[in-house]
Recover the amino acids of this structure.
Protein backbone atom coordinates (compact mmCIF):
# COMPACT_ATOMS: atom_id res chain seq x y z
CA UNK A 1 0.00 0.00 0.00
CA UNK A 2 1.09 3.56 -0.74
CA UNK A 3 -0.13 6.27 1.63
CA UNK A 4 0.46 9.92 0.69
CA UNK A 5 -2.37 11.40 2.76
CA UNK A 6 -2.08 15.12 3.47
CA UNK A 7 0.88 15.78 1.18
CA UNK A 8 1.43 18.09 -1.79
CA UNK A 9 2.06 16.31 -5.09
CA UNK A 10 3.53 18.39 -7.89
CA UNK A 11 3.25 15.71 -10.58
CA UNK A 12 1.01 12.62 -10.71
CA UNK A 13 1.93 10.16 -13.46
CA UNK A 14 -0.45 7.50 -14.82
CA UNK A 15 2.18 5.14 -16.16
CA UNK A 16 1.09 1.50 -16.26
CA UNK A 17 4.63 0.44 -17.11
CA UNK A 18 5.90 1.67 -13.74
CA UNK A 19 7.28 -1.24 -11.68
CA UNK A 20 5.02 -0.25 -8.76
CA UNK A 21 2.00 -1.33 -10.78
CA UNK A 22 3.13 -4.91 -10.43
CA UNK A 23 3.00 -4.87 -6.61
CA UNK A 24 0.95 -1.99 -5.15
CA UNK A 25 -2.64 -3.03 -4.44
CA UNK A 26 -3.87 0.10 -2.63
CA UNK A 27 -3.24 3.85 -2.85
CA UNK A 28 -4.49 6.40 -0.33
CA UNK A 29 -4.16 10.07 -1.27
CA UNK A 30 -6.67 11.69 1.07
CA UNK A 31 -6.33 15.46 1.58
CA UNK A 32 -3.50 15.77 -0.92
CA UNK A 33 -2.88 18.83 -3.07
CA UNK A 34 -2.24 17.94 -6.74
CA UNK A 35 -0.88 20.55 -9.13
CA UNK A 36 -0.15 18.60 -12.33
CA UNK A 37 -1.12 15.29 -13.97
CA UNK A 38 0.95 13.47 -16.58
CA UNK A 39 -0.52 10.69 -18.70
CA UNK A 40 1.39 8.17 -20.74
CA UNK A 41 -0.41 7.17 -23.93
CA UNK A 42 -0.38 3.51 -23.02
CA UNK A 43 -3.86 1.88 -22.81
CA UNK A 44 -2.88 -0.76 -20.25
CA UNK A 45 -3.88 -1.43 -16.65
CA UNK A 46 -1.92 -0.96 -13.49
CA UNK A 47 -2.08 -4.71 -12.93
CA UNK A 48 -1.93 -4.97 -9.10
CA UNK A 49 -3.96 -1.86 -8.18
CA UNK A 50 -7.29 -2.80 -6.60
CA UNK A 51 -8.26 0.18 -4.44
CA UNK A 52 -7.70 3.91 -4.35
CA UNK A 53 -8.98 6.66 -2.07
CA UNK A 54 -8.90 10.22 -3.38
CA UNK A 55 -11.10 11.76 -0.70
CA UNK A 56 -10.61 15.49 -0.10
CA UNK A 57 -8.02 15.75 -2.85
CA UNK A 58 -7.56 19.27 -4.27
CA UNK A 59 -7.32 19.72 -8.03
CA UNK A 60 -7.00 22.94 -10.05
CA UNK A 61 -10.36 22.49 -11.80
CA UNK A 62 -13.12 24.88 -12.82
CA UNK A 63 -16.64 24.28 -14.07
CA UNK A 64 -16.84 24.95 -17.86
CA UNK A 65 -19.13 27.92 -18.59
CA UNK A 66 -20.85 25.94 -21.34
CA UNK A 67 -22.69 24.01 -18.63
CA UNK A 68 -24.71 27.09 -17.81
CA UNK A 69 -26.35 27.20 -21.24
CA UNK A 70 -26.70 23.74 -22.83
CA UNK A 71 -29.70 21.64 -21.66
CA UNK A 72 -28.07 18.43 -22.93
CA UNK A 73 -24.36 17.67 -23.21
CA UNK A 74 -23.04 14.54 -24.87
CA UNK A 75 -19.50 13.47 -24.05
CA UNK A 76 -17.92 10.74 -26.16
CA UNK A 77 -15.35 9.27 -23.82
CA UNK A 78 -14.28 6.81 -26.51
CA UNK A 79 -12.89 9.65 -28.60
CA UNK A 80 -10.90 11.16 -25.74
CA UNK A 81 -7.60 9.29 -25.65
CA UNK A 82 -6.54 10.77 -22.32
CA UNK A 83 -9.70 9.59 -20.55
CA UNK A 84 -9.50 6.15 -22.15
CA UNK A 85 -5.89 5.73 -21.02
CA UNK A 86 -6.81 6.81 -17.49
CA UNK A 87 -9.68 4.31 -17.41
CA UNK A 88 -7.46 1.51 -18.66
CA UNK A 89 -4.88 2.40 -16.02
CA UNK A 90 -7.53 1.71 -13.36
CA UNK A 91 -9.10 -1.24 -15.14
CA UNK A 92 -8.39 -3.69 -12.29
CA UNK A 93 -9.49 -1.32 -9.51
CA UNK A 94 -12.35 -2.88 -7.55
CA UNK A 95 -12.97 -0.10 -5.01
CA UNK A 96 -12.85 3.62 -5.78
CA UNK A 97 -13.42 6.18 -3.01
CA UNK A 98 -13.76 9.72 -4.33
CA UNK A 99 -15.42 11.49 -1.41
CA UNK A 100 -15.31 15.28 -1.08
CA UNK A 101 -13.50 15.43 -4.41
CA UNK A 102 -15.26 18.50 -5.76
CA UNK A 103 -14.84 21.70 -3.72
CA UNK A 104 -16.59 24.29 -5.89
CA UNK A 105 -20.08 25.72 -5.84
CA UNK A 106 -22.99 23.25 -5.61
CA UNK A 107 -23.51 21.42 -8.91
CA UNK A 108 -27.13 22.44 -9.43
CA UNK A 109 -27.20 23.11 -13.17
CA UNK A 110 -30.25 21.45 -14.70
CA UNK A 111 -28.20 19.83 -17.44
CA UNK A 112 -28.56 16.34 -18.86
CA UNK A 113 -25.24 14.57 -19.46
CA UNK A 114 -24.91 11.64 -21.86
CA UNK A 115 -21.62 9.74 -21.63
CA UNK A 116 -20.65 7.35 -24.43
CA UNK A 117 -18.07 4.64 -23.82
CA UNK A 118 -17.89 2.05 -26.58
CA UNK A 119 -15.02 -0.36 -26.03
CA UNK A 120 -14.91 -4.13 -26.12
CA UNK A 121 -13.60 -4.52 -22.61
CA UNK A 122 -14.86 -4.62 -19.03
CA UNK A 123 -13.66 -3.01 -15.85
CA UNK A 124 -13.34 -4.65 -12.42
CA UNK A 125 -14.96 -1.80 -10.45
CA UNK A 126 -17.32 -3.15 -7.76
CA UNK A 127 -17.57 -0.37 -5.19
CA UNK A 128 -17.87 3.34 -5.95
CA UNK A 129 -18.18 6.03 -3.27
CA UNK A 130 -18.93 9.65 -4.21
CA UNK A 131 -19.90 11.07 -0.85
CA UNK A 132 -19.98 14.77 -0.06
CA UNK A 133 -19.31 16.20 -3.52
CA UNK A 134 -21.78 19.08 -3.37
CA UNK A 135 -23.98 17.55 -6.07
CA UNK A 136 -27.53 18.95 -6.17
CA UNK A 137 -28.89 17.95 -9.58
CA UNK A 138 -27.71 14.77 -11.30
CA UNK A 139 -29.27 13.86 -14.64
CA UNK A 140 -26.73 11.61 -16.31
CA UNK A 141 -26.69 8.56 -18.55
CA UNK A 142 -23.73 6.26 -19.05
CA UNK A 143 -24.05 4.29 -22.28
CA UNK A 144 -21.63 1.41 -21.95
CA UNK A 145 -21.43 -2.30 -21.22
CA UNK A 146 -18.00 -2.06 -19.60
CA UNK A 147 -19.12 -1.75 -15.95
CA UNK A 148 -20.82 -5.08 -15.43
CA UNK A 149 -19.34 -5.88 -12.01
CA UNK A 150 -20.35 -2.82 -10.00
CA UNK A 151 -22.17 -3.89 -6.80
CA UNK A 152 -22.35 -0.85 -4.53
CA UNK A 153 -22.82 2.88 -4.98
CA UNK A 154 -22.61 5.48 -2.21
CA UNK A 155 -23.85 8.98 -3.01
CA UNK A 156 -24.49 10.02 0.58
CA UNK A 157 -23.95 13.47 2.09
CA UNK A 158 -24.46 15.37 -1.14
CA UNK A 159 -27.32 17.83 -1.60
CA UNK A 160 -29.29 15.85 -4.14
CA UNK A 161 -32.71 17.24 -4.95
CA UNK A 162 -32.88 15.25 -8.19
CA UNK A 163 -31.32 11.99 -9.37
CA UNK A 164 -32.41 10.62 -12.71
CA UNK A 165 -33.41 6.94 -12.89
CA UNK A 166 -31.33 6.82 -16.08
CA UNK A 167 -28.19 7.27 -13.99
CA UNK A 168 -28.48 3.62 -12.93
CA UNK A 169 -29.63 2.41 -16.35
CA UNK A 170 -26.42 0.46 -17.13
CA UNK A 171 -25.55 -0.49 -13.56
CA UNK A 172 -27.93 -3.43 -13.44
CA UNK A 173 -25.60 -5.46 -11.22
CA UNK A 174 -25.92 -2.98 -8.34
CA UNK A 175 -26.82 -4.66 -5.04
CA UNK A 176 -26.32 -1.89 -2.48
CA UNK A 177 -27.22 1.81 -2.81
CA UNK A 178 -26.79 4.49 -0.17
CA UNK A 179 -28.26 7.95 -0.74
CA UNK A 180 -28.47 9.07 2.87
CA UNK A 181 -28.35 12.69 3.99
CA UNK A 182 -29.54 14.27 0.75
CA UNK A 183 -32.64 16.32 -0.08
CA UNK A 184 -34.73 13.82 -2.00
CA UNK A 185 -38.00 15.11 -0.52
CA UNK A 186 -37.87 17.88 -3.12
CA UNK A 187 -37.68 15.25 -5.86
CA UNK A 188 -40.57 13.36 -4.24
CA UNK A 189 -42.65 16.54 -4.33
CA UNK A 190 -41.68 17.99 -7.70
CA UNK A 191 -40.73 14.91 -9.77
CA UNK A 192 -42.94 12.25 -8.22
CA UNK A 193 -42.81 9.87 -11.18
CA UNK A 194 -39.01 9.92 -11.44
CA UNK A 195 -38.70 9.49 -7.68
CA UNK A 196 -41.03 6.50 -7.75
CA UNK A 197 -38.97 4.93 -10.56
CA UNK A 198 -35.51 5.89 -9.35
CA UNK A 199 -34.52 2.20 -8.97
CA UNK A 200 -36.56 0.85 -11.90
CA UNK A 201 -33.56 -0.58 -13.80
CA UNK A 202 -32.10 -2.38 -10.78
CA UNK A 203 -33.45 -5.91 -10.51
CA UNK A 204 -30.81 -7.35 -8.18
CA UNK A 205 -30.82 -4.79 -5.34
CA UNK A 206 -30.33 -6.17 -1.84
CA UNK A 207 -30.00 -2.95 0.21
CA UNK A 208 -31.39 0.57 -0.26
CA UNK A 209 -30.59 3.32 2.22
CA UNK A 210 -32.42 6.63 1.73
CA UNK A 211 -32.34 7.70 5.37
CA UNK A 212 -32.26 11.36 6.41
CA UNK A 213 -33.86 12.82 3.29
CA UNK A 214 -36.83 14.54 5.01
CA UNK A 215 -39.16 12.19 3.08
CA UNK A 216 -42.82 12.60 4.03
CA UNK A 217 -44.18 9.63 2.10
CA UNK A 218 -43.08 6.73 -0.09
CA UNK A 219 -44.93 5.89 -3.35
CA UNK A 220 -47.00 2.72 -3.06
CA UNK A 221 -45.14 0.67 -5.68
CA UNK A 222 -41.64 2.12 -5.34
CA UNK A 223 -40.05 -1.05 -3.94
CA UNK A 224 -42.36 -3.98 -4.66
CA UNK A 225 -40.87 -4.34 -8.17
CA UNK A 226 -37.49 -5.12 -6.56
CA UNK A 227 -38.02 -8.78 -5.76
CA UNK A 228 -34.54 -9.28 -4.27
CA UNK A 229 -34.60 -6.43 -1.71
CA UNK A 230 -33.51 -7.57 1.77
CA UNK A 231 -32.79 -4.33 3.65
CA UNK A 232 -34.77 -1.09 3.30
CA UNK A 233 -33.46 1.77 5.45
CA UNK A 234 -35.75 4.79 5.84
CA UNK A 235 -34.71 6.17 9.24
CA UNK A 236 -34.48 9.87 10.04
CA UNK A 237 -37.21 10.94 7.61
CA UNK A 238 -40.63 12.49 8.26
CA UNK A 239 -42.78 9.46 7.45
CA UNK A 240 -46.05 9.00 9.32
CA UNK A 241 -46.89 5.60 7.82
CA UNK A 242 -45.51 3.00 5.39
CA UNK A 243 -47.04 0.40 3.10
CA UNK A 244 -46.66 -0.83 -0.46
CA UNK A 245 -49.11 -2.10 -3.07
CA UNK A 246 -47.43 -5.49 -3.19
CA UNK A 247 -44.99 -7.55 -1.15
CA UNK A 248 -41.21 -7.97 -1.04
CA UNK A 249 -40.59 -11.68 -0.67
CA UNK A 250 -36.97 -11.35 0.48
CA UNK A 251 -37.31 -8.33 2.80
CA UNK A 252 -35.75 -9.05 6.18
CA UNK A 253 -35.32 -5.62 7.76
CA UNK A 254 -37.36 -2.43 7.42
CA UNK A 255 -35.84 0.54 9.25
CA UNK A 256 -38.38 3.21 10.22
CA UNK A 257 -36.52 4.66 13.20
CA UNK A 258 -36.56 8.38 13.99
CA UNK A 259 -39.51 9.28 11.77
CA UNK A 260 -42.73 11.10 12.71
CA UNK A 261 -44.84 8.01 13.32
CA UNK A 262 -47.23 8.69 16.20
CA UNK A 263 -49.37 5.70 15.28
CA UNK A 264 -49.73 3.56 12.16
CA UNK A 265 -52.96 3.42 10.20
CA UNK A 266 -54.74 0.10 9.67
CA UNK A 267 -53.42 -0.14 6.09
CA UNK A 268 -49.81 -0.01 7.30
CA UNK A 269 -50.37 -2.53 10.09
CA UNK A 270 -52.14 -4.97 7.75
CA UNK A 271 -49.39 -4.62 5.15
CA UNK A 272 -46.63 -5.25 7.70
CA UNK A 273 -48.45 -8.25 9.14
CA UNK A 274 -48.90 -9.74 5.66
CA UNK A 275 -45.28 -8.94 4.77
CA UNK A 276 -44.21 -10.97 7.80
CA UNK A 277 -46.29 -13.92 6.58
CA UNK A 278 -45.13 -13.73 2.95
CA UNK A 279 -41.38 -13.19 3.29
CA UNK A 280 -39.19 -16.24 2.84
CA UNK A 281 -36.87 -15.17 5.66
CA UNK A 282 -37.33 -13.69 9.12
CA UNK A 283 -38.81 -10.21 8.86
CA UNK A 284 -38.26 -7.35 11.31
CA UNK A 285 -39.48 -3.77 11.38
CA UNK A 286 -37.64 -1.21 13.54
CA UNK A 287 -39.86 1.59 14.87
CA UNK A 288 -37.64 2.76 17.71
CA UNK A 289 -37.17 6.45 18.46
CA UNK A 290 -40.61 7.43 17.19
CA UNK A 291 -42.88 9.35 19.57
CA UNK A 292 -45.96 7.14 19.73
CA UNK A 293 -49.23 8.63 20.96
CA UNK A 294 -52.02 6.42 22.23
CA UNK A 295 -55.68 7.30 22.60
CA UNK A 296 -58.99 5.52 22.79
CA UNK A 297 -59.26 5.94 19.01
CA UNK A 298 -56.05 4.03 18.18
CA UNK A 299 -55.69 1.30 20.80
CA UNK A 300 -55.41 -1.18 17.93
CA UNK A 301 -51.98 0.32 17.21
CA UNK A 302 -50.81 -0.01 20.83
CA UNK A 303 -51.95 -3.63 20.93
CA UNK A 304 -50.28 -4.31 17.56
CA UNK A 305 -46.97 -2.91 18.86
CA UNK A 306 -47.05 -5.24 21.85
CA UNK A 307 -48.29 -8.39 20.13
CA UNK A 308 -46.33 -8.30 16.83
CA UNK A 309 -43.26 -10.50 17.12
CA UNK A 310 -41.64 -8.90 14.08
CA UNK A 311 -41.51 -5.43 15.72
CA UNK A 312 -38.04 -5.05 17.23
CA UNK A 313 -38.02 -4.59 21.00
CA UNK A 314 -34.35 -3.79 21.68
CA UNK A 315 -35.39 -0.83 23.85
CA UNK A 316 -38.60 -0.42 25.88
CA UNK A 317 -41.40 1.05 23.81
CA UNK A 318 -43.28 3.99 25.28
CA UNK A 319 -46.48 5.75 24.33
CA UNK A 320 -47.80 9.16 25.34
CA UNK A 321 -51.12 8.52 27.09
CA UNK A 322 -53.07 11.36 28.70
CA UNK A 323 -49.96 13.53 28.67
CA UNK A 324 -47.73 10.94 30.35
CA UNK A 325 -45.16 8.52 28.94
CA UNK A 326 -46.33 4.95 29.47
CA UNK A 327 -44.25 1.80 28.92
CA UNK A 328 -46.02 -0.45 26.44
CA UNK A 329 -46.71 -4.03 27.49
CA UNK A 330 -49.75 -6.26 27.84
CA UNK A 331 -50.60 -4.75 31.20
CA UNK A 332 -50.41 -1.10 30.11
CA UNK A 333 -52.51 -1.82 27.01
CA UNK A 334 -55.13 -3.39 29.27
CA UNK A 335 -55.01 -0.29 31.50
CA UNK A 336 -55.70 1.90 28.47
CA UNK A 337 -58.56 -0.34 27.36
CA UNK A 338 -60.08 -0.21 30.85
CA UNK A 339 -59.83 3.56 31.02
CA UNK A 340 -61.45 3.90 27.58
CA UNK A 341 -64.31 1.64 28.70
CA UNK A 342 -64.59 3.80 31.84
CA UNK A 343 -64.80 6.94 29.72
CA UNK A 344 -67.52 5.45 27.53
CA UNK A 345 -69.49 4.26 30.56
CA UNK A 346 -69.38 7.71 32.11
CA UNK A 347 -71.01 9.24 29.05
CA UNK A 348 -73.51 6.38 28.89
CA UNK A 349 -74.54 6.94 32.48
CA UNK A 350 -74.82 10.67 32.05
CA UNK A 351 -77.00 10.18 28.99
CA UNK A 352 -79.19 7.66 30.77
CA UNK A 353 -79.42 9.86 33.83
CA UNK A 354 -80.73 12.73 31.71
CA UNK A 355 -83.12 10.65 29.61
CA UNK A 356 -84.59 8.31 32.24
CA UNK A 357 -86.81 10.01 34.77
CA UNK A 358 -87.62 6.98 36.91
CA UNK A 359 -85.88 7.59 40.23
CA UNK A 360 -85.25 3.90 40.91
CA UNK A 361 -83.40 3.47 37.65
CA UNK A 362 -81.38 6.61 38.22
CA UNK A 363 -80.38 5.33 41.66
CA UNK A 364 -79.33 1.98 40.20
CA UNK A 365 -77.33 3.69 37.46
CA UNK A 366 -75.45 5.96 39.82
CA UNK A 367 -74.76 3.09 42.22
CA UNK A 368 -73.19 1.16 39.34
CA UNK A 369 -71.32 4.29 38.31
CA UNK A 370 -69.68 4.70 41.72
CA UNK A 371 -68.70 1.03 41.75
CA UNK A 372 -67.16 1.45 38.34
CA UNK A 373 -65.44 4.60 39.53
CA UNK A 374 -63.80 2.64 42.36
CA UNK A 375 -62.73 -0.04 39.89
CA UNK A 376 -60.93 2.50 37.77
CA UNK A 377 -59.40 4.13 40.80
CA UNK A 378 -57.72 0.74 41.30
CA UNK A 379 -56.59 0.81 37.68
CA UNK A 380 -55.05 4.25 38.15
CA UNK A 381 -53.25 3.09 41.30
CA UNK A 382 -51.83 0.12 39.41
CA UNK A 383 -50.67 2.35 36.57
CA UNK A 384 -49.09 4.81 39.01
CA UNK A 385 -47.33 1.97 40.89
CA UNK A 386 -45.88 0.60 37.63
CA UNK A 387 -44.70 4.05 36.53
CA UNK A 388 -43.08 4.68 39.94
CA UNK A 389 -41.34 1.28 39.91
CA UNK A 390 -40.00 1.70 36.38
CA UNK A 391 -38.80 5.26 37.00
CA UNK A 392 -37.26 4.50 40.43
CA UNK A 393 -39.80 6.69 42.25
CA UNK A 394 -41.50 3.91 44.22
CA UNK A 395 -42.08 5.18 47.78
CA UNK A 396 -41.39 1.79 49.38
CA UNK A 397 -38.21 -0.26 49.65
CA UNK A 398 -40.15 -3.45 48.86
CA UNK A 399 -43.20 -4.11 46.72
CA UNK A 400 -44.36 -6.81 49.14
CA UNK A 401 -43.47 -8.40 52.45
CA UNK A 402 -43.90 -12.17 52.02
CA UNK A 403 -44.91 -13.83 55.27
CA UNK A 404 -44.49 -17.63 55.38
CA UNK A 405 -43.71 -20.49 57.75
CA UNK A 406 -40.10 -21.65 57.75
CA UNK A 407 -41.47 -25.19 57.50
CA UNK A 408 -42.69 -24.30 54.00
CA UNK A 409 -39.45 -22.72 52.76
CA UNK A 410 -38.89 -25.37 50.06
CA UNK A 411 -42.30 -24.79 48.44
CA UNK A 412 -42.11 -21.02 48.90
CA UNK A 413 -38.62 -20.55 47.43
CA UNK A 414 -38.86 -23.14 44.65
CA UNK A 415 -42.54 -22.96 43.65
CA UNK A 416 -44.22 -19.77 44.77
CA UNK A 417 -41.58 -17.01 44.59
CA UNK A 418 -40.22 -17.82 41.07
CA UNK A 419 -43.75 -17.83 39.60
CA UNK A 420 -44.67 -14.68 41.51
CA UNK A 421 -41.58 -12.80 40.29
CA UNK A 422 -42.13 -13.88 36.69
CA UNK A 423 -45.74 -12.68 36.78
CA UNK A 424 -44.69 -9.37 38.34
CA UNK A 425 -42.08 -8.85 35.61
CA UNK A 426 -44.79 -9.38 33.01
CA UNK A 427 -47.19 -6.98 34.72
CA UNK A 428 -44.62 -4.24 35.35
CA UNK A 429 -42.61 -4.61 32.17
CA UNK A 430 -39.23 -5.05 33.85
CA UNK A 431 -37.69 -6.22 37.15
CA UNK A 432 -37.48 -2.89 39.00
CA UNK A 433 -38.98 -4.33 42.19
CA UNK A 434 -37.90 -6.16 45.37
CA UNK A 435 -39.66 -8.57 47.68
CA UNK A 436 -38.92 -8.87 51.39
CA UNK A 437 -38.87 -12.62 51.99
CA UNK A 438 -39.73 -13.09 55.65
CA UNK A 439 -36.81 -13.27 58.03
CA UNK A 440 -34.31 -12.72 55.21
CA UNK A 441 -35.14 -9.02 55.50
CA UNK A 442 -34.67 -8.84 59.29
CA UNK A 443 -31.71 -7.17 61.01
CA UNK A 444 -29.60 -9.58 63.03
CA UNK A 445 -30.30 -9.37 66.75
CA UNK A 446 -33.55 -7.41 66.31
CA UNK A 447 -36.73 -8.19 68.19
CA UNK A 448 -38.90 -10.40 66.00
CA UNK A 449 -42.17 -8.41 65.90
CA UNK A 450 -40.26 -5.11 65.73
CA UNK A 451 -38.49 -6.39 62.64
CA UNK A 452 -41.79 -7.56 61.17
CA UNK A 453 -43.30 -4.10 61.67
CA UNK A 454 -40.22 -2.40 60.21
CA UNK A 455 -40.35 -4.59 57.09
CA UNK A 456 -44.10 -4.05 56.73
CA UNK A 457 -43.63 -0.28 56.88
CA UNK A 458 -40.98 -0.65 54.14
CA UNK A 459 -43.37 -2.69 51.95
CA UNK A 460 -46.39 -1.63 49.91
CA UNK A 461 -48.44 -4.77 50.65
CA UNK A 462 -48.23 -8.04 52.59
CA UNK A 463 -48.48 -11.46 50.93
CA UNK A 464 -49.29 -14.22 53.40
CA UNK A 465 -48.57 -17.84 52.36
CA UNK A 466 -51.19 -19.93 54.20
CA UNK A 467 -50.48 -23.54 55.20
CA UNK A 468 -51.13 -25.83 58.16
CA UNK A 469 -47.81 -24.91 59.76
CA UNK A 470 -48.50 -21.20 59.22
CA UNK A 471 -51.91 -21.38 60.91
CA UNK A 472 -50.58 -23.46 63.80
CA UNK A 473 -47.85 -20.96 64.71
CA UNK A 474 -48.96 -17.93 66.78
CA UNK A 475 -45.97 -15.92 65.55
CA UNK A 476 -47.30 -15.73 61.97
CA UNK A 477 -50.79 -14.83 63.18
CA UNK A 478 -49.16 -12.00 65.12
CA UNK A 479 -47.60 -10.81 61.83
CA UNK A 480 -51.08 -10.60 60.32
CA UNK A 481 -52.32 -8.60 63.30
CA UNK A 482 -49.40 -6.17 62.96
CA UNK A 483 -50.29 -5.67 59.28
CA UNK A 484 -53.92 -5.01 60.23
CA UNK A 485 -52.90 -2.52 62.92
CA UNK A 486 -50.81 -0.44 60.53
CA UNK A 487 -53.49 -0.83 57.80
CA UNK A 488 -51.27 -2.64 55.34
CA UNK A 489 -53.13 -4.33 52.40
CA UNK A 490 -52.99 -8.14 52.72
CA UNK A 491 -53.18 -10.79 50.01
CA UNK A 492 -53.16 -14.57 50.49
CA UNK A 493 -51.52 -17.51 48.73
CA UNK A 494 -53.08 -20.82 49.87
CA UNK A 495 -50.65 -23.65 49.29
CA UNK A 496 -52.64 -26.29 51.26
CA UNK A 497 -56.33 -27.06 51.75
CA UNK A 498 -57.21 -26.32 55.38
CA UNK A 499 -60.61 -27.11 56.93
CA UNK A 500 -62.42 -23.93 57.96
CA UNK A 501 -62.66 -24.99 61.61
CA UNK A 502 -58.85 -25.16 61.78
CA UNK A 503 -58.33 -21.62 60.50
CA UNK A 504 -57.47 -18.93 63.06
CA UNK A 505 -60.28 -16.39 63.41
CA UNK A 506 -58.34 -13.52 61.81
CA UNK A 507 -57.39 -15.70 58.82
CA UNK A 508 -60.95 -16.95 58.40
CA UNK A 509 -62.29 -13.38 58.44
CA UNK A 510 -59.71 -12.01 55.97
CA UNK A 511 -60.12 -14.89 53.52
CA UNK A 512 -63.74 -13.82 53.00
CA UNK A 513 -62.82 -10.32 51.83
CA UNK A 514 -59.20 -10.23 50.62
CA UNK A 515 -57.52 -11.30 47.38
CA UNK A 516 -56.67 -15.02 47.28
CA UNK A 517 -54.80 -17.33 44.93
CA UNK A 518 -54.84 -21.10 45.50
CA UNK A 519 -52.01 -23.43 44.53
CA UNK A 520 -52.31 -27.13 43.81
CA UNK A 521 -50.02 -29.63 42.12
CA UNK A 522 -51.09 -31.20 38.81
CA UNK A 523 -48.68 -33.82 37.45
CA UNK A 524 -46.02 -32.50 39.79
CA UNK A 525 -46.35 -28.90 38.56
CA UNK A 526 -47.91 -26.05 40.54
CA UNK A 527 -51.17 -24.65 39.16
CA UNK A 528 -52.74 -21.43 40.46
CA UNK A 529 -56.39 -20.39 40.54
CA UNK A 530 -57.06 -17.66 39.66
CA UNK A 531 -53.90 -16.97 37.66
CA UNK A 532 -50.84 -15.49 39.34
CA UNK A 533 -50.98 -12.72 36.71
CA UNK A 534 -54.39 -11.61 38.01
CA UNK A 535 -53.09 -11.87 41.57
CA UNK A 536 -50.14 -9.58 40.74
CA UNK A 537 -52.42 -7.04 39.06
CA UNK A 538 -54.53 -6.99 42.22
CA UNK A 539 -51.34 -6.51 44.26
CA UNK A 540 -50.32 -3.47 42.22
CA UNK A 541 -53.82 -2.01 42.50
CA UNK A 542 -53.54 -2.07 46.30
CA UNK A 543 -50.43 0.13 46.39
CA UNK A 544 -51.25 3.50 47.97
Amino acid sequence: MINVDGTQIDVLSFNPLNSLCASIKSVSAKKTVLTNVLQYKVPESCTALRHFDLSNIQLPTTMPPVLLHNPTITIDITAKRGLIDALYFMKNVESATINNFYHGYPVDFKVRFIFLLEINDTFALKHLSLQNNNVVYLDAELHTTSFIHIESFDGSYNKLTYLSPRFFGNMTTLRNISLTNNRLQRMAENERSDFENIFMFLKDLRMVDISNNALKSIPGNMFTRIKTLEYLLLSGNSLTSFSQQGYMMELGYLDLRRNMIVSLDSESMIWLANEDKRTRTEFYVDLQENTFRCSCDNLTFANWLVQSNYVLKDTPRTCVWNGESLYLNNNSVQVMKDECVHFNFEWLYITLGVSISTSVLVTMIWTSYFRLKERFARVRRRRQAIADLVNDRFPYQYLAYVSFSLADDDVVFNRVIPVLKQALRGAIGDDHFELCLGELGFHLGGIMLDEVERCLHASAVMVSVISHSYCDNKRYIDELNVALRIKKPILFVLIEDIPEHKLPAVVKRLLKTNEIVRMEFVDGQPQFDPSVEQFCIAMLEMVR
About this structure: The chain has three domains: 62-329, 333-390, 398-541. The chain is about 30% helix and 20% strand.
